[in-house]
Amino acid sequence: MAPLPKLAVFDLDYTLWPFWVDTHVDPPFHKSSDGTVRDRQGRTIRLYPEVPEVLDRFRGLGVPMAAASRTGEVEGANQLLELFDLARYFVQREIYPGSKVTHFERLQQKTGVPFSQMIFFDDEKRNIVDVSKLGKKEKGPTPEEAIQKLKETEKILIKKQEFLEQKIQQELQTAKKHGTKNKRAALQALRRKKRLEQQLAQTDGTLSTLEFQREAIENATTNAEVLRTMELAAHGMKKAYQDMDIDKVDELMADITEQQEVAQQISDAISRPVGFADDVDEDELLEELEELEQEELARELLHVGDKEEEPPVKLPSVPSTHLPAGPAPKADEDEDTLKQLAEWVS
Asked: Which regions are flagged for Basic and acidic residues bias (predicted)?
């Protein structure tokens, strides 16, 4: 719900009643025996029918009310407020010819209520427009507008500089032209040259000041944009980390480590052979394996001479030519190997 105003101000003509007091009716007014309000000619004077209800509603909400009118019939307007029993609603009355701005300024002084916390009811748009400007400060130029205005002024001053420099050269040439032949004219030209040089110096100083102001505004605009960007980035980062903090990160990393350990334990358990006793001594198994190998080797050595003799193989006739000397017969190597094995077994 919007806050209530601190003061409600009502116009009179065509706001509380449907006429202009100073033109449409003929004061003084009176209340007749039947309770109606009449003017001097006996014509009945009435309010807008909703007025009493509206004023009662404002009073029920605790909103103070005031009357403000530019009518020239001051006495008649106040008389109608009394006859219609409306005067009891208004804590202040500003009824006199002039400006509604004056009415509101006096109401503000008397009540202390800021213009921004007043509400105004009036049938004339010009009054509303005038009053709506109260309490408002003129909107200053934007940085872009100020920079543009400064640039335009700088261009004007630069043109003035060029003009002054040309005039200075002209006066200097005039002084040289007259020289000692026309001393008076030469001195006048030099005096004008001095004045022009002073104006040029002032213009240079003004131009430097404007350039400084423009650069300052440009830098301020850039800094403001940078700050806005940084603020936006900060908000974005804050939003990204709004559900996170260092404690949560530490807790998460601890959970990950714990889960990795559990996973490793599960993998080890799955890969462990099933059905073998854990109390088997591996050294005993190695000794048993070595005994089996010794038995097998001994068995092979004992049955070397028991093999059945194979039928003789018919060999080709011996060549008549001498063969080159070759390596020692393989049988000799086999015999040497068997001897070494027998010695190793014994």
From this structure: 299-312
Question: E strands, 224-276, where?
Answer: none
Residue 1's Cα: distance from chain center in Å? 28
Per DSSP, the three-state class of 13 is strand
Task: Give the pLDDT confidence score for residue 51 in this predicted structure.
Answer: 95
CA angle 187, 190, 195 (to 5 degrees): 130
Residue ranges and CATH numbers for the domains of the chain are 7-135 (3.40.50.1000), 143-267+284-303 (1.10.287.1060)
Amino acid, single-letter form, for residue 147: I
* Residues 217-227: tens digit of each pLDDT: 999 988 988 99
Active site residues: 11, 13
pLDDT tens, residue by residue, 98-144:
888 999 999 999 999 999 899 999 988 878 888 887 766 556 678 88
For residue 287, the surrounding DSSP H or E stretch is helix 282-302
Q: Cis link prior to 28 (omega < 30° from 0)? A: yes
Q: Which of 57, 66, 72 is nearest to 15 (CA)?
A: 66
CA distance 309 to 299: 19
Q: Tell me the β-bridge partners of 82.
A: none
